[in-house]
Amino acid sequence: MKKIAVFASGSGSNFQVLAEQFPIALLFSDKKNAYALERAKNLGVPSYTFELKEFENKVAYEEAIVELLDKHQIDLVVLAGYMKIVCNTLLSAYEGRIINIHPAYLPEFPGAHGIEDAWKADVSQSGVTVHWVDAGVDTGQIIKQVRVPRLINDTIETFEARIHETEYKLYPEVIRELV
Ligand code: GRF
Which residue positions are annotated as catalytic (predicted)? Predict the structure, then answer.
């Protein structure tokens, strides 16, 4: 079994779904007030948090992350709502071992507002994508993706909820194959 670290910056609902199905060695958050940290406590998952502003620059910040991952002998880094771009320090140490989930059907609607952008574009369907992380924003090799329809009576909330429900199925499916 590979040792998994999950990275989350916010709510951590994907983290929670994963932690209920897989042993998670650690949660890392770049936000001290992330609700994901609360979830980790409740789930008994060790959590670590430090913020970019505590460091001189992003290199030093990512060096601290690499040190944490090395110390715990992490095999797979699972980004789940981690809202920072992964830079060279972390990438060069862990490339090929970092995956991300994106709430759209890449390459459609990359970036931080995948759901909202798809909604505003009036698409009849969007989707969810799990991909390897490279130096770009949501550009890495796609592992698996599924379509999610936008229904006639949808509000952005119901559309968003359907996308999240799809994430909660797809991410564990992919991780099961990888570990
Ligand atoms: C998810 O929609 C994920 O696809 C995106 O950020 C969101 C994180 O939600 N990258 P949560 O923190 O897992 O609730």
Answer: 102
pLDDT digits (tens, 9 = 90+) for 113-149: 999 999 999 999 999 999 999 999 899 999 999 999 9
Whose alpha carbon is nearest atom 14 of ligand 1? 13
- How far CA 132 is from CA of 27, 120, 148, 161, in Å, comes to 19, 27, 21, 24
Q: Which of 102, 113, 131, 164 is catalytic?
A: 102
Tell me the mean pLDDT in the region 147-165: 98
Q: Is the pLDDT at 1 greater than 90, yes or no?
A: no
C-beta separation of 134 from 95 below 8 A: yes
Q: pTM for this structure? A: 0.97
Domains along the chain?
1-95 (3.40.50.170), 100-179 (3.40.50.170)
102 catalytic? Reply is yes
Q: Which residues pair with 101 in a beta bridge?
A: 130
